[in-house]
Amino acid sequence: MSTREVILGVGGGIAAYKSCDLLRRLQDQGFGVTVIPTPASLNFVGSATWEALSGRPVTTSVWEKVDEVRHVSLGSSSDFIVVAPGTADLIARIAHGRADDLLTNTILASSAPKLIVPAMHPAMWSNPATVANVQILRDRGFFVMEPDHGRLTGKDVGVGRFPETSRILAEFNSIANPVHDLIGRKVLVTAGGTREPLDPIRFIGNRSSGKQGYALARAAARRGADVTLILANSELPDPSGVSCIRVSTAQEMFEKVDQAFDGCDLLVMSAAVADAKPLHVSQSKIKKGALTSIELAANPDIVSTVSSRKKNQVVIAFAAETSLDIEEGKRKLLSKSADILFLNDVAGSEIFGSDQNQGVILISDKAQSVQEINVDRTDKDTLADLLLDQALHRLG
Ligand code: PMT
Asked: Which atom of ligand 1 is nearest to the CA of 359?
């Protein structure tokens, strides 16, 4: 089989250096990679680095090697174009059909699938101009990833960070080797952590970022499912191609899941739901001296309640424990009438908010015996696909 060819377009942002790793990982997967940097990006990573890593010549301008008509030959011979990092300026230029360097000329001249990996300051990412440009590109069939949330180059924190290489590769592979095995399926996913108010200022909450459920919703959508994500208190943006409903409390999440459950084929309960809430919610701030104890009332157990009336639905639950207690995982799987449960050890700070997860998939069969599949540390996108694979076996 001949090597599949990727053009790696590099925009002028500090994240350009992270694309060196992306280039290597694409080569590890057997792709031939030609790098086309923008002239501005050479301020961050020079041509010599790209030539050494790719083993191929690197040019930025259509005025070099004119006899080869590089933008047309590169554009037509590539199977994929990945733009990483995509800066606000580069995204704007591509959206408006500009052709002022070799990269933008090549993008215009190529019909290959195109993935853009944005990286910029959160204020630039959320600026209406960028939002509109991203929408134009998505409407034209470009795949534009959501950047990560986190620390930026300066002291600022927000959405705009260049995603981890593993997440880019997962997205790229889904484009390069698309699987549409969930077409026609309705998938309901919960994610994030509920917040139970005590007064207008305080709440009982947890450390869930929503990333694991978000990865599941995106993976199911990519595989062709009609996906609804019920997202509690997460800073992540609405994922594209997914209908996203924002909630805050366990009761609100319960109502949304309860409404949608009968019409879905698969429920994935990855949200961290508070088991209890303050019995009394004060309308004004509780004074320091009165804050000595909190009386609690139980929240509905969402997954148990809806699973008890399941017909052909498959239900995936999660168990967040502070040790990998398999017996407790099995107990939860069976007592909550779930079909599959992912048991993760959340002690320490390595799962909540991280891009990676690890644990054990527990699968119940009709005789209530439980199969165990160990999952070594991997990114949340890969785990999402593993869980969906298991759900698909059950869906038939
Ligand atoms: O969001 P991230 O930062 O990516 O972190 C991911 C995660 C750690 C939150 C996720 O992997 C995870 O473990 N989610 C489940 C957390 C949890 O609530 O576990 P639990 O053991 O308390 O609950 C067991 C199951 O019952 C879960 O599927 C939960 O959604 C469900 N539940 C719990 C309480 C309740 N009142 N109703 C429920 O449906």
From this structure: 11
Ligand 1 centroid to Cα of residue 318, in Å, is 5
Residue 215 Cβ inside 6 Å of ligand 1? The answer reads no
> Which atom of ligand 1 lies closest to the CA of 211?
4
Interhelix angle for 380-395 vs 165-176, to 10°? 40
**What confidence tens digit (pLDDT) does each residue in 22-55 have?**
999 999 999 999 999 999 999 999 999 999 999 9
H or E stretch at 69: none
- Residue 319 Cβ inside 6 Å of ligand 1? The answer reads yes
State the pLDDT at residue 2.
Answer: 63
Q: Is 209 in the pocket of ligand 1 (CB under 6 A)?
A: yes
CA–centroid distance, residue 321 to ligand 1 (Å): 9
Domains in the chain, start-ordered, CATH in brackets? 5-176 (3.40.50.1950), 186-395 (3.40.50.10300)
Residue type, 147: P
- Residue 47, φ and ψ in degrees, nearest 5: -55, -35
Q: Across residues 52-73, what is the average pLDDT?
A: 86
Strands 80-86 and 5-10: parallel
The active-site residue out of 133, 206, 299, 344 is 206
pLDDT digits (tens, 9 = 90+) for 290-320: 999 999 999 999 999 999 999 999 999 999 9
Nearest alpha carbon, ligand 1 atom 33: 273
Q: Which of 339, 334, 282 is nearest to 312 (CA)?
A: 339
DSSP 28-72: HTT-EEEEEE-TGGGGTS-HHHHHHHHSS-----TTSSGGG-HHH
Could you tell me if 394 and 314 are in contact, meaning their C-beta atoms sit under 8 angstroms apart? yes
pTM: predicted TM-score of the whole model, two decimal places = 0.76
Establish whether residue 272 lines the binding site of ligand 1, counting it when its CB lies within 6 angstroms of any ligand atom: yes
* Residue 116 contacts residue 94 (beta carbons within 8 Å): yes
Please indicate whether residue 212, judged by its CB atom, sits closer than 6 Å to ligand 1.
yes
Q: State both tokens at 392.
A: 């698909």
